[in-house]
Amino acid sequence: MDKIKASHFFRSSLAGVILSAALLLGFHFTTEGRFSPQTYRLLRILMGVVLYHQFLVWLVWRAQLCFNLFTRLFGKYDLLIWSLLFLPPLAARPVLTVLIALSDRATLPGAAALWVFLALLLLIPSLYGSYSVARYFGIIRAVGADHFRESYRSMPLASGGMYRWSNNVMYGYVFLLFWAIALIFRSQAALVAALFQHAFVWVHYYTVESPDMDAIYG
């Protein structure tokens, strides 16, 4: 673990504050009787999936980076097995967000047209960001291939699509999809789900991904 710099303590602490605030807000909204039992259960499931997914990423990335554990266990299939573990909970997030929004739809005040318009404003960069990640960055790189293969560490930075304006398209723009879903269905509960997921992914960035990139790329 000596590869992970101690200088990231401050950013880790800040990320912990962000996550704690998101957790408190989420539990506040889910324990005060604001939502139906079905919506409450779906929110709890989503939070559990997010917690499991981010913990799994931390555990595997650090084990691979520091001890080469997955490669020792699975050999040339290490990256394939990791992708099969990584992608299902990631795909479950938008599905659960839609289910939450459907169970709590039309709970935001105001005209539906306004919320749909705002949703489209978020959906456009989110979809273009998703295309940019798939086309110019690659799904395999997105699961953390540079933790497993030296060849991915020498690849140039993505520069096409939305990467022309941002180095962090995934967290900055793709995750706007969750906010768009909440606004399309005008769901308060889905807004809580979007906030929790977006806050948590930035916690992941500051506490896991950024220190790992420093260790890998110097």
Q: In terms of topology, how is this protein built?
A:
Blueprint: H1 9-31, H2 37-67, H3 69-74, H4 78-103, H5 112-137, H6 139-142, H7 150-153, H8 169-174, H9 176-184, H10 188-217
Helix pairs in contact: 1-10, 2-4, 2-10, 4-9, 4-10, 5-9, 9-10
Walk me through the structure.
This protein is mainly alpha-helical and 218 residues long. It has one domain. Helix content is 76%, strand content 0%. Helix 1 packs antiparallel against helix 10, helix 4 runs parallel beside helix 9 and helix 9 packs antiparallel against helix 10. The longest helix is centred in the first third of the chain and has 31 residues. The radius of gyration is 18 Å and the shape is globular. It starts with 8 loop residues before the first helix and ends with a helix. The N terminus is likely disordered.
- The number of distinct helices, counting runs of at least 4 residues, comes to 10
DSSP summary, beta strand count: 0
| Secondary-structure-derived class | mainly alpha
The parts where pLDDT drops under 50 for at least 5 residues are: 1-6
Strand percentage:
under 5%
Q: What is the average per-residue confidence, as pLDDT, rounded to a whole number? A: 88
Report the helical percentage.
over 70%
Distance between the termini: 15 Å
Q: Helix and strand string, N-terminal first? A: HHHHHHHHHH
Backbone CA Rg = 18 Å
- Give the biggest sheet: none
Cα shape = globular
Domain count: 1
